[in-house]
Design goal:
Blueprint lengths: L2 E4 L7 E7 L3 H13 L9 E8 L5 H11 L1 H4 L3 E5 L4 H15 L3 E5 L2 H10 L2
Parallel strand pairs: 2-3, 3-4, 4-5
Antiparallel strand pairs: 1-2
Helix pairs in contact: 2-4
Length: 123
Amino acid sequence: MPFELRVAPGDRVARLRGWGNDDYLSTQEALERVAADPRLAPGMPVLFDLRELEYLATPPEVASFATDAMPRLYLGRPVALLAQRGTQLGICRAFAAKATQAGARVEAFVEPELAEDWLERDR
């Protein structure tokens, strides 16, 4: 599975990491499992590090992730997407815009410190 959720005892932010190559369906299934993980408390902020993920969602996949496929993961909690500069950041920004329109609090970042600061402020 190319996704790993880490929630340390007493940590106020869940850390989700994606890596390797995947496709839409397997990514959707993996993220549904993450969203159902009991360690992910309701409202808990998520720092989602995508920098090692090779899969790049197409525009229709981005729209589907934002409106249909991932609401349990991002609705009701701030989610900071940590991306590489370039195409991956553009995809994350498109996702964040669509997810925000669906009622989520999602932002894309390239600097981990800025992502963590935003999560602390958005709680």
